[in-house]
């Protein structure tokens, strides 16, 4: 049986990049493969080199070509008429492959994922798991949130010690 994949959307990757923690993202939940669909990769022009370095040197992340066919192609067409290409690719892919989405764009993915019974993780969920698995301290999580928000991204500031994740893997 194939290992479940966490399909990372651009926002989570950008958050971890802004906090200079992209290299640890896949090690937070190492029991899952972490992938970036080519559609999402193409949106991340400014940090493609970081992703390439992880694929080549750390080997803890992979980029997979997104070439949907059949029902997945139809679903992607419907979704991409309402949402961004990256989110649409991740949602369609996970719907038909039973994988997990890593996205903080709850405005676009939450309702769809709930309706389709797709597990999703937000940036804060990843931080929570990093904290409870002793990969990052409370102070490092706080600094992460500060770095991301001062870098121009939206991210709620929470006390990671009392945070409850959206999903339980």
Termini separation comes to: 18 Å
* Quantity of strands, as a count: 5
- Strands of the biggest beta sheet: in what spatial order? 3-2-1-4-5
Major sheet characteristics: 5 strands, parallel
Explain what the structure shows.
- The protein has helices spanning 10-18, 25-28, 38-43, 48-58, 70-80, 85-97, 106-116, 123-132, 138-150, and strands spanning 5-8, 33-37, 62-64, 100-102, 120-121.
- With 169 residues, the protein is an alpha/beta fold.
- It has a five-stranded parallel beta sheet with strand order 3-2-1-4-5.
- Helix 5 runs antiparallel to helix 6 (85-97).
- The longest helix has 13 residues, at 85-97.
- It starts with a strand and ends in a 19-residue tail after the last helix.
Question: Would you spell out the secondary-structure blueprint of this structure?
Answer:
Blueprint: E1 5-8, H1 10-18, H2 25-28, E2 33-37, H3 38-43, H4 48-58, E3 62-64, H5 70-80, H6 85-97, E4 100-102, H7 106-116, E5 120-121, H8 123-132, H9 138-150
Parallel strand pairs: 1-2, 1-4, 2-3, 4-5
Helix pairs in contact: 5-6
Q: What attributes does this structure have?
A:
169 residues; alpha/beta; five-stranded parallel beta sheet; 10% strand
């Amino acid at each position: 049986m194939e290992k479940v994949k966490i399909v990372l959307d651009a926002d989570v990757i950008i958050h971890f990049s802004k906090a200079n923690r992209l290299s640890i993202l896949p090690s937070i939940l190492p029991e899952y493969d972490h992938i970036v669909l080519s559609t999402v990769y193409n949106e991340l022009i400014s940090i493609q080199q970081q992703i390439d370095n992880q694929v080549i040197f750390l080997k803890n992340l992979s980029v997979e070509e997104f070439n949907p066919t059949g029902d997945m192609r139809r679903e992607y067409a419907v979704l991409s008429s309402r949402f961004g290409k990256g989110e649409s690719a991740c949602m369609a892919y996970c719907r038909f492959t039973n994988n997990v989405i890593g996205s903080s764009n709850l405005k676009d993915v939450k309702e769809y994922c709930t309706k389709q019974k797709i597990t999703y993780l937000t940036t804060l969920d990843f931080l929570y798991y990093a904290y409870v698995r002793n990969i990052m301290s409370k102070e490092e999580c706080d600094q992460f949130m500060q770095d991301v928000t001062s870098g121009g991204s939206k991210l709620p500031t929470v006390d990671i010690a009392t945070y409850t994740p959206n999903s339980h893997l």
